[in-house]
Amino acid sequence: MPRACPPRLLVLLASALILALPTHAEIVEATGVASLDAGQEAARPLAIEDALTAAARVHGTRFQGHGELDRGHALESGRLASTSRARLIEVVEEREIDGLLHVRVRAETSGTHDNACERTGSAPRKRIAASFATLADPLHVQDLRDLGEGLPRALLAHLNRDGDFLIANEHPIPALPAPSSPERIVALADQIDSQFIIETRLLDAGVGDRNQSRVTFVSGESGYHDLSLELPFLPRLGFKREPASRRLELSLAIHDGLTGATVARHILTEDVSGRVWVGLDKPFGGRAFLDTATGQAFDRLLARAADLTRQELSCLPFSARIVDIDGDTAYIDAGTLARIKPGDTFIVYRRGGKPVQSLRGGRLLGTMETPVATATVTQAQPLFAVTTLTGAGDRPARAGDLVRLR
Prior knowledge:
The chain is α+β, with helices and mostly antiparallel strands. The chain folds into 4 domains: about 1-115, no CATH class; about 125-210 and about 245-315, Rossmann fold (3-Layer(aba) Sandwich), CATH 3.40.50.10610; about 210-240, no CATH class; about 320-405, Thrombin, subunit H. The protein is built from 5 helices and 21 strands. The protein has helices at about 40-60, 145-160, 180-190, 285-290, 295-315; strands at about 10-15, 25-35, 60-70, 75-80, 85-95, 100-110, 125-130, 135, 165, 195-205, 215-220, 225, 240, 245-255, 260-275, 320-325, 330, 345-355, 365-380, 385-390, 400-405. Helix 2 crosses helix 5 (about 295-315).
């Protein structure tokens, strides 16, 4: 005779979204960070470990999750697990920036690439925003116009080329303080209703030694003509000296707008040679700007930054908020423009409790969340969707609660 079910019906649902692909090795570079509160010696191994984790994550990631039903109340949890391993080859660079030690490493990764995360197509479109770019040294950009606003706008343009994101802000939001304050990030994200905020900081844009620069003849009719002469009387004949090399170094940080936590940091570099002096008559991102060697280098740098941002955000869950409730009907602030459609099912979470911080350095890790109900989309409008709540029990959903796609 079959055993009777216990009074508390508990159904465990387990899933591991893994594609079995051939194992192979790959050489990658990645950046890790650690707080300098305990000193450089203590921070260095932690930053290296963080960089190796980032290298493994970029190479391959899978999502493992489970859910359960307890008297009709839906619960779910999940975790990201790397499908590859990273072995340190060398430390490429170490830099101290805003109280953090940034360590860039070259590592060999091995394992399987994994396509468990939805990257294109039907995946919901997350709302992102970018802040004004900040400068480590304003003297490096005397020939660059509108960089503070132009750089983040160009990055958002790269991210929006495939239409996989919703851009929350037409113009960049105010620059974030250094170091970034979680409270400030949350406040700004709430103002523009963005799930993630992208922060950029130009660490270096210095030009090479003018004494070793090329000589350029400037003519209004025939344009620029580069010569290799370096004679003191040439400026009097209509020639001018311009630097022939430049190094660009960009810090990229991705912040969770719901908690203020930093989910990823990267440093990208690009070396430029040729016509590196831009001039204030060429706005950042314009056609004339992109005709220069520096403009083309910035374009390549921002394309790489966009690719890294896509990789980091692809495995993070889509989130929205409940904005109104009428009985068992809840309205969420995401609709067809975010690729939400009838039949989509969300878990409703309520944030509560104190923020969780790392043991060393006090870095914000996030805030505790409690699942309270399931929300199924019944109707979708461009900017909002109507959902039906189930499984709320004695913890009813309310306006302000988060919803995440199951």
